[in-house]
What does this fold into?
Amino acid sequence: MSKAFGGFPALADVTLNLSSGRVHALMGENGAGKSTLIKLIAGVLKPDSISVTKDGSPLPLNDAQDAHKAGFRFIHQELNIVPQVSVAENILLGRDLPRRFGFAVDWNKVKTQAEEALAFLGATHVDVTLPAGDLPAGDKMMMKIAAALVSADQNEPVLYVLDEPTAALTGEESEMLFDVIERLKAKGTAILYVSHRIDEILRICDDITVLRDGEFVSKNEISKTSKVDIIQAMTGRDFKDAYPKREVPIGIDTIASLENVDTSNLQNLNFELRAGEILGVSGLAEAGQTQLLKLFMGLGKVKSGAASFLDEELPRSPSDAWARSVAYIPRERRGEALCLDMSVRANIVLPHLSDYGFYAKPWLENKDALEFGGKVQLKSSGSTQPVGQLSGGNQQKIVFARAIQGNPKLLLLDEPTRGVDIGAKYDIYLLVRELSANGCAVILTSTDLPEVLGMCDRVLVMQEGRQAHLLERGEMTSADLLSHFFNNNDAA
Ligand SMILES: Nc1ncnc2c1ncn2[C@@H]1O[C@H](COP(=O)(O)OP(=O)(O)OP(=O)(O)O)[C@@H](O)[C@H]1O
Ligand SMILES: [Mg+2]
It folds into this structure.
């Protein structure tokens, strides 16, 4: 298959072979063409050329219906959900809903079918009558996986395609997904799997195809390759140290201090944050990590205790926070952080416009957009390209570029490297280290525990909205950290 966008090839004559009962990994850096390949076989993007065969005979693939008829099922990278309607309807979206006497929709059946699909995943806790938009990110992903699994139609699935499903899942939820993949594999379906987490790939996949800049690089059995080989194939370079070390000691100035603080949704917050310090926030899903970051964005109310930021009260609103040099990288880049129809340049410089004075200075904006885009190794066709056209990982880099442009004093990072490839991750870690060396304090939360341990000086563990532990990172392993998510014996 081949596909170019405006003369620029995103995929050049790439071949992929998938076998029943095997999990096939598709890997490559951000912008390598993985999602484009998937959209071609899903029939949602028009190819420049494609030829598909199944069991040796040619298969027509002109649109999404053809792909569905062939038994191909997709979970795309950016979840398309209808937030206002129920989880059950989202799961059965685009199918013939079960009906009574041939016309009235049988809502009881809709509900049962949706519940059955979720039960197959082990996600029985999800209430299918809730509006889908109200679900936490992990459950939204479970819902989309259930939608691909639902067996409400005649075309038996032969291939499941998952584009970075675990980027939005916690460790526990990922395990549930791996279990489902095992069961699908045992039923004889083929699986195409995209992820930037190499350890995960080595564990659950049988075969691997690597792309680089839209071109096929290599195909191999997982058992005959290694982490080092895969990274080499993806990047064309040798493996770098995963986390850059702290080189400048933590500063003396206190950036923030919380003493016995309770807020509308958090309790028992007790910590000081010093200039240059990187504080990790960890815990099970939804334990209050995001709320803690949002407290410093002025999105939370202190009810009791003493809280200060730069010797004054905490920011009262996001604009107050922004004015006082707090930068925030939210978890949901598409919903909370980006204007997808607008250009790369606008997305990077928009919140900084007041720094440019009264008149528009497009040349200066361009220069800055290029400079800060360059710092995060952004791959785009230029500063006027709409952000919606960038690959998932490159969209995340835009959010990062914008945050660092303001020289923040406090940087709040919620899953900063989600969907970002291994080389670009390293670049982002270097930038965080550089900001910290210049005195910027950082609060970071991530479901990637090695990332928390690799970057943070201390780790605050939350349990159900309470601060449960404040740990020195020391020689801690991921398993040690994980055990603190559950136990409660040493008070913080
Ligand atoms: N609609 C579009 N218009 C123009 N260019 C596009 C469009 N969609 C994708 N591209 C370009 O095609 C290239 C491949 O993008 P793709 O989304 O396939 O990457 P990817 O391998 O999935 O990356 P990631 O790991 O970041 O998700 C990128 O350079 C991207 O900017
Ligand atoms: Mg992608």
About this structure: Residues 34-35, 77, 163, 391-392 surround magnesium ion (ligand 2) (CB under 6 Å). The CA atoms of residues 106 and 174 lie 33 Å apart. The chain has a mean pLDDT of 88.
